[in-house]
Design goal:
By secondary structure, the protein is mainly β. 3% of the residues lie in helices and 49% in strands. A hairpin with a 6-residue loop joins β4 and β5. The radius of gyration is 14 Å and the shape is globular. It starts with a strand and ends with a strand.
Length: 130
């Protein structure tokens, strides 16, 4: 059973930084993708970034390009989301999720679309205050 546990959320001022962590376990094979998503109050959940376990490739949605960096420590089975130059509109609950097997090979998974992700963490709150 796949388990994903996020940590690292908190309150930060505009322009500040936070690093989120996603501890992952329970995967049988290495053909999976870990994605970060977020959901702001009153809005739909949206993809943020993803990293592929197999080749380490990454993808970012436009709103976070140049500010967020996704990385992984395979020895620790942990994926990180380094968030810099934070803005009020980055305020949201952040979730990590996993896409495995055939789903992980789809365009939807590569583009961080939530329908391609089956397993989800509980989320961690990020609040950017002005």
């Amino acid at each position: 059973e796949v388990q994903l546990v996020e940590s690292g959320g908190g309150v930060v001022q505009v322009g500040g930084s936070l690093r989120l962590s996603c501890a992952a376990s329970g995967f049988r094979f290495n053909d999976y993708i870990i994605g970060w998503f977020r959901q702001a109050p009153g809005k739909a959940r949206e993809g943020v970034a993803r990293i592929s376990r197999g080749d380490g490739s990454t993808y970012y949605r436009d709103p976070v390009k140049g500010r967020f960096t996704i990385s992984s420590d395979n020895a620790k089975n942990t994926v990180y989301l380094q968030m810099n130059m934070l803005r009020p509109e980055d305020t949201a609950v952040y979730y990590c999720a996993a896409s495995q097997g055939l789903l992980s090979g789809t365009i939807q998974a590569e583009r961080v679309e939530e329908d391609a992700y089956d397993d989800w963490g509980q989320g961690t709150q990020v609040t950017v205050s002005s």
